[in-house]
Automatic annotation (TrEMBL):
Gene3D superfamilies reported for this sequence: 3.30.300.20
Annotated InterPro entries: KH_dom-like_a/b, RbfA, RbfA_dom_sf
GO molecular function annotation: ribosomal small subunit binding
Species in which this protein is naturally found: Pigmentiphaga humi
UniProt subcellular location: Cytoplasm
Location, primary (coarse class): cytoplasm
Keywords linked to the UniProt accession: Cytoplasm, Ribosome biogenesis
Domain of life: Bacteria
Reported function: One of several proteins that assist in the late maturation steps of the functional core of the 30S ribosomal subunit. Associates with free 30S ribosomal subunits (but not with 30S subunits that are part of 70S ribosomes or polysomes). Required for efficient processing of 16S rRNA. May interact with the 5'-terminal helix region of 16S rRNA.
A single Gene Ontology CC term: cytosol
Protein's recorded name: Ribosome-binding factor A
GO BP term, pick one: maturation of SSU-rRNA
Amino acid sequence: MSRHRQKKLPGGRNQRLADQIQKDLAEMIQREVDTVRAGLVTLSGVDLTADYAHAKVYFTVMGADPAVAEAALNEKAGWLHSLLFKRLHIHTVPTLHFVHDKQISRGIEMSQLITRANTPGMTADGLEAEVEAEADQREDIAPAEPSAPDDDRA
């Protein structure tokens, strides 16, 4: 009867805490982060380390460049950490690291490619040329310039 050899069940305390952090951060980001700079942020997941020291927070963004949104969120990470500390009643509140989630946008692109490939009359050469043209078009788009903060706080 060794207590140290018990297997960790999926959906245990680590997952429940990650879900709670995601829920609380979603509320706080809505109130605390400037949507002009960061855009509309949606949290898609939280990965916690085993010791709860670090949390990787995955997000998607609409209306802003993902790199700018990531920088804005990581700037506010300390403030969000302090607010999270007040809400959660645990010994160690993780340090927050925001990462843009590229899986959703990649999934949408793949879905569009599958739809185009299944279109009657579309040849493989025509599909390949269309994909290359879209890739060139994405490279030509310049990222949005970050706006200056509205207040004098640094």
